[in-house]
Amino acid sequence: xxxxxxxxxxxxxxxxxxxxxxxxxxxxxxxxxxxxxxxxxxxxxxxxxxxxxxxxxxxxxxxxxxxxxxxxxxxxxxxxxxxxxxxxxxxxxxxxxxxxxxxxxxxxxxxxxxxxxxxxxxxxxxxxxxxxxxxxxxxxxxxxxxxxxxxxxxxxxxxxxxxxxxxxxxxxxxxxxxxxxxxxxxxxxxxxxxxxxxxxxxxxxxxxxxxxxxxxxxxx
Length: 220
Description:
Number of helices: 9
Helix content: 25-40%
CATH class of the largest domain: Mainly Alpha
Radius of gyration: 27 Å
Low-confidence stretches: 1-15, 19-25, 207-220
Structural class: alpha+beta
Number of domains: 2
CATH architecture of the largest domain: Orthogonal Bundle
Shape: elongated
Strand content: 5-15%
Oligomer: single chain
Largest sheet: 3 strands, antiparallel
């Protein structure tokens, strides 16, 4: 008697083979020329915004502690603290991320290259408005106008469009929109927190003393 034919559609399937994990698929950056530090540098050179150490660790399949140690070592090396030459760039921790910037001592050289013929720089009015918001935030447009003595509606719109300030809430008493600086502002300033701003605040009036109605254009 012949054996019954096997129905392939209902026959037992082969045991599933577990898919390889992400770590198994990742290459070992330690085996690359320059090792892990060179891999970290390569990523930093192409990022357009500060990148957290934990994200670097994930991309490079490295422990976060190792990446953090590499970042600190590279920052010191670029500053010339490891016996090497002083570089024209430096590695800074800005906010929760790290990014390569041109060095402070090369600011005049960079400004000559970047700003020559550029018309998109902030006006003096915009810089003054940004300073008031940075040091007295959260503030309303009316309060900023009270400090500067002029209506700042258009200037605040410009700063908002450029991503330097943003709406952060509303004033409980008047309902007016409150403004504060953004993470992009910290990035452009090259600092990690507002505590690192130069000591200018004592020269600005207290916001509670500002009469927002005593400004050309009325309250804002």
